[in-house]
Design a protein that fits this description.
This protein is an alpha+beta fold. The protein is built from four helices and six strands; from the N terminus they run ααββαββββα.
Length: 132
């Protein structure tokens, strides 16, 4: 099983190790933003991480990684994000250090030992309610 690459990805996230996260990804990674568009490639993911680093301070807790039975390429994870909204993100409310706690999850496709797709989900309405 390749579940270790998912665990490594989240450990790097919690450490703020963006290069470590990028090392977990395939060059052509497909990144499906929560309730948004798909971005493709490590450069797009690097830009996403830059925006996240500027606008949010987050830590994932209670991470559970699940493997699809009989498949070595499909995984899912659920977690609780504990965050702080630092700087207003495009199209979102003003930021002034609001804290939030939110359950979320992700789906992954792994190819050749690297994450080829990550699709994130969380309840945007819940997040908006917490930061307004």
């Amino acid at each position: 099983m390749t579940i270790g690459i998912i665990e490594q990805y989240y450990a790097a996230f919690n450490a703020g190790d963006w290069d470590g996260m990028l090392a977990c990804l395939a060059d052509d990674v497909a990144h499906d933003l929560n309730q948004g568009r798909r971005e493709t490639g490590k450069d797009a993911f690097r830009a996403f991480l830059g925006r996240m680093n500027r606008c949010y301070r987050e830590r994932l807790e209670d991470i559970v990684v699940l493997a699809a039975p009989g498949r070595a390429d499909r995984f899912a994870a659920e977690w609780t994000v504990h965050g702080e909204y630092l700087v207003a993100d495009d199209g979102l409310p003003p930021a002034h250090g609001q804290r939030y706690v939110l359950p979320g999850g992700a789906f992954f496709t792994v190819r050749d030992g690297r994450i080829a797709r990550v699709t994130n989900f969380y309840n945007l309405a819940d997040w908006l309610e917490q930061v307004q």
